Amino acid sequence: MVCFCACATASAKAGGEISPLPGFSLETLDEAQAALLAWASAWRDGEEGALPTPPSAAFGASCALAELCGELPQAADYRAAPLCAGDPDELFARLSLMPGEKVAKVKVGLYEAVRDGMVVNLLLEAIPDLTLRLDANRAWTPLKAQQFAKYVDPHYRSRIAFLEEPCKNRDDSRAFAQTNGYRYRLGMRACARRTLPLPPSRGCGRW
C-alpha cells in the first residue's frame, strides 16, 4: 500500500511517495499517513518544522520538498541494475546487451564465501567497465567475510560500489569494511531504526 504527499506553491507543484515495507519498516501505513497529515497541515500553515518522524513519511515529504525547490536533477537513468543470485553466465548475457555504464547487483552469502569471492572477481575481471553492488544480507561471520575478500583482487575493490551488511553483527561489518577497503552499506531494516537528522530550512514559499 502507498500514500502520496503533494505540495504546491503559486508557481510549482510536487509530490513524494510514502510506502512502508511490511516486515522491514517499523511504522505501518496508517501511522505514516497520520504523521504525514500532521506535517502537511503544519507545512501548509507556514511552519518550518522537522520532517515527519516515521522514515517512510520523512522520505516522501523530503522528496516532495526537494522537487518543489528545484533540487532534483531534470534528467535521470531509470534502468534497473540486473541481479545475479547464482549463475554468472546469465548476468554476462544481460550485461552484454546493456548500453552505457554497466552496473549489476550480486547476492553473495548464498553459497560458500570463497565461491562468492571467485565469482565477483571473475565478473570484474571479464568486464572492465562493470561496477558491482554486493548484498550479503548478514550471511557471513568475520572469518567468512575475510575468505571472500581474499579471492577478490584488491585492484578491483574500487569498482565495488558497496557491500551491504556483510556480517551478522554491525560492528563486525564495519570492521571488515574498514580493514579491507570496502564501502559498507546498511540494509533497509537497519536504516529504518536510525534517527533522521533535522533538515535545514529550504526557504520554499507556501500557499
Automatic annotation (TrEMBL):
<dbReference type="InterPro" id="IPR041338">
    <property type="entry name" value="OSBS_N"/>
</dbReference>
<dbReference type="InterPro" id="IPR036849">
    <property type="entry name" value="Enolase-like_C_sf"/>
</dbReference>
<keyword id="KW-0460">Magnesium</keyword>
<dbReference type="GO" id="GO:0043748">
    <property type="term" value="F:O-succinylbenzoate synthase activity"/>
</dbReference>
<feature type="domain" description="Mandelate racemase/muconate lactonizing enzyme C-terminal">
    <location>
        <begin position="88"/>
        <end position="183"/>
    </location>
</feature>
<dbReference type="InterPro" id="IPR013342">
    <property type="entry name" value="Mandelate_racemase_C"/>
</dbReference>
<protein>
    <recommendedName>
        <fullName>o-succinylbenzoate synthase</fullName>
        <ecNumber>4.2.1.113</ecNumber>
    </recommendedName>
</protein>
<dbReference type="Pfam" id="PF13378">
    <property type="entry name" value="MR_MLE_C"/>
</dbReference>
<keyword id="KW-0479">Metal-binding</keyword>
<keyword id="KW-0456">Lyase</keyword>
<dbReference type="InterPro" id="IPR029017">
    <property type="entry name" value="Enolase-like_N"/>
</dbReference>
<dbReference type="InterPro" id="IPR029065">
    <property type="entry name" value="Enolase_C-like"/>
</dbReference>
<dbReference type="GO" id="GO:0009234">
    <property type="term" value="P:menaquinone biosynthetic process"/>
</dbReference>
<dbReference type="GO" id="GO:0046872">
    <property type="term" value="F:metal ion binding"/>
</dbReference>
<dbReference type="Pfam" id="PF21508">
    <property type="entry name" value="MenC_N"/>
</dbReference>
